[in-house]
Amino acid sequence: MNKKKSSSLTQLALQKFRKNFWGVLSFWFVVFCLLLAVFAYTLAPDDTANANQMHLSIHSKNPGFSVKMLSFPIETSSQSVISSFFFGENISSAEIPITNYKISNDTLYAAPYTGEGIEGLTKIYTLKEDFKGVDSWQHVEEQFIQQKTFLLGTDKYGRDMLSRMLVGIRISLSIGFVAVFISLVIGISLGAIAGYYGGKVDQAIMWLINVTWSIPTLLLVIAITLALGKGFWQVFIAVGLTMWVEVARVVRGQVLGVKKLQYVTAAKALGFSNFRIIQKHIIPNIIAPVIVISAANFAAAILVESGLSFLGIGAQPPMPSWGGMIKDHYSYIILGKPYLAIIPGLAIMSLVMAFMLIGNALRDALDVRT
Hints:
Elements: H1 2-18, H2 21-38, H3 40-43, E1 65-73, H4 81-87, E2 93-104, E3 107-112, E4 123-126, H5 127-130, H6 137-144, E5 145-150, H7 161-197, H8 199-214, H9 217-228, H10 232-240, H11 244-258, H12 262-269, H13 274-282, H14 287-311, H15 322-329, H16 339-365
Antiparallel strand pairs: 1-2, 1-5, 2-3, 3-4
């Protein structure tokens, strides 16, 4: 009976969620971003680790910029398919943007790209020395000289902006997942213990919650980050350790109301342990507001990580982070190339807004009063 009732309530919640246009649209947008994050290196034009292939001669180019690219094969260590899928390829070729080239006998004459209108053939490459293992110039032209287009332009180091944006999705989504997971584990545990046992246990946990709550989130994250050191995983822990407070307060309030209900009293009378009562009977009945808070915390984690990267204490170069990309290019807003900072800014805004809209839709769908 209870199982059927629970199933019907879940179906009602799903039906209400499906009727929320912005919630459904945001959900599929997040799913799309997740797929982009998983297949980032497969989809990125620059599939090297961290999309870090630099071409300083073509830095800060507009979206749609196209140039001939001459590649030199270089020896690299072998790499597994799984490693290249998740972490990118080792740099296997040195790329040089060129404006023109000519092949004469056993020599390739090329003009490296140094600006518009420069066509002088100055560089000289030979088949035997520079393209070892390639038997003819025809194969060189087919394999190592190609027209390369940068759909979102290049950054100040000449790296492909589209590739860095795609790989950067991983940073934002992973920080959200890990930070929310840490906050849920700590927040639900402390909140449930405080609400269920009450007394001095409740007072001690509430004191810890109030002290943590009184410290500005960004300052606390900066302090934890500086204590743990700069880096990718340190940011995960720092953000997660600052987001548990709100979860704990909500869970405590819910447990205070639920523990007085008859089914909890019946579970105690049957001799169930306190741990089992909390885990099996109380937490499943208070999970709805926790889900809504998790969606909001996901958005907040993305913003905090972007802020830390902008300050230089988040994900460290050359790891692509949307906040770090804004930091590198915010001065270009007044130098005639604002898109270098606006593109990652819009990406952060859209992803945060999607999670906030999902949270609002879940709040409406899980509201028992409606």
